[in-house]
Amino acid sequence: MQVLSEELAVQGYTSLLFHSSEMNSSHSHNTQHESAWLETILRKAFHESSISRVVKVTKEEIGVKGDNYVSCITRVTLEIIQNSGRKSKKTLILKCPLDLFMPMPVFKLEVKVYENILSEFNALMNEFQDPNEAVWCEMIGHQPYDIIALEDLKAANFKVADRKNLLDMNHTLLVLNGLGRLHGISHVLIQRGVISPNDLGVDLVSPDCPFASRIVEGGFDQLACVMEEFWPPEWKEVAKKFAKLSKVAMEKIKNIMDYTKDTFLVMNHGDCWTCNMMFKYSPYEESRPIAVKFIDWPFANVNSYILDITRLLGECMHPEIRRQNIDILYRAYQKSLASTLEFYGMPGIAPTLEQIYAEAKRAECLEILYSTVFLAVVIEDFPGFYIDKTFTPCEAKECFNADIFKTETFRKLIEAEIKRWVEEGII
Length: 427
What we know:
This is CHK kinase-like domain-containing protein. By secondary structure, the chain is α+β, with helices and mostly antiparallel strands.
């Protein structure tokens, strides 16, 4: 919901009524009288529901270790007195950086996305009277650049899914539908010249991200070491392949990130994993999600749509469900993207299903990264990734806890996929 001032909201509504009345001059006097009356009651309603003063503030730190790597998240509850005299409560989320050196201004970039980019998304939705709910949350304000105040999605019955359980088909299809809408709206704005690559940052694992190489090389290297030493003997040859991949993976990823003039460009979320999305559930079927919103935007970037899709399917979804339903998943995304573009006046330009398959093939190195290294981090309770070590001179593999690759749970989740990659010569 886009926040409007009382004055702008009332003026906009009464202006609409006035201009509508000009179409029927015989009712002009009555309609103008009605417009004035509506303006009066709107001003009264806005005034009475607005805040007179805050009488109490309480804070609650939220989040689970491993869900947030660079931020401290706090829910703030405000006990307020409205101008009507009624007591009420409002909640909001405060996001602050951890005491951690970061070689890129992630908070400044995220504020820019909320303030300059997502506001354009809201404006486009208003322009076309899009009846769908936005798939992003709203920023209420910020203190440059160490506090961001956001709407509290929990107050609207949204919650984060359990990352360790991985997403089922219903959750994944809903997210793909949301990505189709997000990508479609962003493509319209890119074509209008409202958004350009220079307006945004880079993907988390892009070679332009200052710590990406240590994540990519360190993850594959640690996996190779564990596979050779702790997995059954038949995996030793595969371990050598992953050790070799660790040396060339960043060059492969660079080739994926370097899009061409023919690439279908969108604004990617850039860090599209389970803890950066929140779901609302059906009131009569608690396990069925009915809405999704994306949060945390410091790695938003302009690039191929396949970046978000590959991250979602590889890191967040159960591998067996993904393997059995990949065509359904790609079709769901394509349908959402195409229908969004058609709604916004750009029919027939969405990538075809065949083109999506081709992009996924081009992004295979990312699929391997997300389906192995990142998946292992996601499914464990204990810490799997030490972000602070990525900024130190230690060996890159020490950024990852070797234990995450030793578990039987992880090996059984991914072994069929690894065998396929080997058989097809992908690794």
